[in-house]
Amino acid sequence: MMKTKQIRLMASAAVFLVLLGSGLAYYQYAYAVTRTWDGGGVDGTCGGAGTANNWTCAANWSGDTVPTGSDIASFDATSTKNATINAGISVAGISIAVGYTGTITQSAAYSVTVGSSHWVQAGGTFTGGSGTIDINGTYTLSGGTFTSTSGVFEVGRVAGSETIFALSSGTFNHNNGTVRFAPSDTCTFNTSFTVDIATSLTLYDVVVNAIQACGGANILTLASGDSVIITHDFTQTDGILGGIWELQNNIVIGANADGSKDSSTLTMTGTGAKTYTYTTGGIGPHLRINNAGLSVSANAGTTDLSVAYFSLLAGTFVAPTGILNVGAYDQTTGEIFVVSGGVFDHNRGIVSFVSASAYWTTFTINVPTSLTLYDVSWSPIAVNSSYLTTAAGDTLIVAHDFSHVRGILDGTWEVQGDYTVAAAAIGGTASIAFTGGNSQTYTNQGGDEANGDITVNKSGGAIALTSNADWNAAGQDVTVTAGTLSVGPGTLSTNAITVAAGATFQMTSSGDLTLASTLTNNGLVHIWGNDTCGGSDAVQIRSSSSGVQRSWNGTGTFSIYDADIQDMAGAAAITVYSSTNNGNNGANWTFSGAACPAAALTPAMTLGTGSFYLGSGVVNLR
Questions:
Q1: How far separated are the first and last CA of the chain, in Å rounded?
Q2: Nearest to residue 460, comparing CAs of 609, 331, 576?
Q3: Average pLDDT for residues 316-335, to the nearest whole number?
Q4: Integer CA distances (angstroms), 200 to 122, 178, 203, 222, 558, in order
């Protein structure tokens, strides 16, 4: 049968002829063509019974030639005969026009590879098998029906910003297969590749693999107003995720994942037990948990997790036993950690807030009044010009240790373990309460502490300063409501100190006090320069402004010896022993030369757990 050959200019293979006699090189180009399905094959010409519809039957194509890797396979009204892909095929493009009403079937596990001339479907029906469909261009569905492979459908190529998957009309059936979005570019930072669908699309498994070869990050995003529902698993292998995604099963974060755009979300809405799997180095998207019947926890072998943002609206989230990193570089949206409902199980792991911005952005933790985490750190990555705060009226409770590593700390915090200020910390307005029944330490490694008020309200044990504490910003005061604040070694510099009834403020050898306001004591102030009274003046008490007296008031007990004191006054009658009057002290201060009295546990002193050490003297129990 004779057929009309349709010629189309495309990238071609060259036939190189060398004319040896003249030494002249001559190039002749054989241009690729569009091969149109004309359905001319019959069993007799295609190889026997049942072969008339085979893709590999040359008689079914214009020019009696099966499309090759440089050709476009075209289906239109020329023939509406069904086609069967009976072998692995590789073509430059596939075009299915409105006029084609037949069905193209991917038989068995045969693969379909499409090049840079794209997949364009406006009509007809494509029925996938189980083999791979690999589109190294773009995919467009504007009519007809496309039932994907139950294996892997992959789309994407090396290009600039473009729409790689467009579905404006027609039907896309996922066939319980995987859709892998795999665009890449040559080395342009934040190239955006778009999935543009008719409002909503349901897929089964989804993989995002937006590769950037030069160390940056590309974006795979949904068009504005679109959403994708993933009924099975989601994997972010590489790139930044954009748009609104819904996930009903498990999430996997690969080592090269780059988080998500600020307004983008991946919301887990399934029911029952679901898992997250994480490989070190990656950053997952904005992970939202939102189903009362959903419980999300680490997959076997996963001990860490890193996401750009985290929100728990309903259901249960069990944090990893290692580190949960929340945040990414160059974020601009404020709320990075939200718990508005459900149960957040800290699982005795670390929550590390790492959001960073070069624009002095404030990142907010928003919880229902209060939330208890275990270990917490604030350590913005890459840059230090970022704030971390709790929402107005909220308190974040840290059941174990807190580390202020970098950045600026605001908000309201309650810490029940050790508190560390690293050298790169740059202050903030945070107020800190030390609570719980554990023994705690406060260590400043050279950074700038937060400038909010300090409260000690412990049911037992003490908070011990193991370094200098500069709690002396304007208006920054120290209140010991319950429990013990212990100074030494190092110097406590602060404004007002208030010691409530039943509470204790104590200083030991090598601990000093610089006071900028009043000390009010209705509990116990215990300042001993040495374990044994009568030694050198190991404790120094000074005013922040030389010559300006600071008042010591209250009805509590003062037990002070082996101290060097200057510029102190007030209304409380205070007798000190084996101490030095260095001048300008008020008449309420008596420097006694008598022998040190026996130490007494007053009714204001309560020993819950731990130990009480008496260097010398007598303990009177009454």
A1: 118
A2: 609
A3: 90
A4: 19, 17, 10, 10, 72
At residue 6, does pLDDT exceed 50?
A: no
Cβ contacts of 169 within 8 Å, gap of 6 or more: 141, 142, 143, 198
For residue 266, how many other CB atoms are within 10 A of its CB? 26
Q: Which H/E stretch holds residue 18?
A: strand 13-19
What is the number of other CB atoms lying within 10 angstroms of the CB of residue 182?
A: 23
Q: What six digits make up the tokens of 488?
A: 């030494």
**Alpha carbon distance 368, 315 (integer Å):** 15
Q: What mean pLDDT, rounded, does the chain reach?
A: 90
Q: What are phi and psi of 45, to 5 degrees?
A: -95, -10
CA dihedral 246, 250, 253, 254 (to 10 degrees): -120
Q: Report how far Cα 524 is from the mean position of its chain's Cα atoms.
A: 45
Residues in the chain: 622
Confidence of residue 351 (pLDDT cuts 50, 70, 90): very high
The model's pLDDT over 91-142, given as tens digits with 9 standing for 90+, comes to 999 999 999 999 999 998 999 999 999 999 999 999 999 999 999 999 999 9
b/e sequence 215-244, b meaning 16+ C-beta within 10 Å:
eebbbbbbeeebbbbbbbbbbbbbbbbbbb
Question: 339: which 2 tokens?
Answer: 């718990």
- The secondary structure of residue 192, as a DSSP letter, is E
Q: Can you give the pLDDT at residue 517? A: 98
Name the DSSP letter for residue 441. E
> How high is the pLDDT of residue 384?
67
Question: Residue 30: what residue type?
Answer: A
Report the alpha-carbon distance of residue 97 to residue 241 in Å, rounded: 32
As given in the structure block, the two tokens for residue 590 are: 């008596």
The partner residues of 520 in beta bridges, in order of sequence, read 498, 553
Of 30-39, 193-202, 260-269, the range with the lowest mean pLDDT is: 30-39
What are the two backbone dihedrals, phi and then psi, of residue 519, each rounded to the nearest 5 degrees? -110, 120
Q: Which CA distances in Å does 357 have to 6, 156, 201, 598?
A: 56, 31, 34, 58
Two structure tokens written together for 405: 């590593």
Global pTM reads: 0.89
Residue with tokens 């189903």: 291
Structure tokens at 360: 């002095």
Contact 93, 157 (CB under 8 A): no
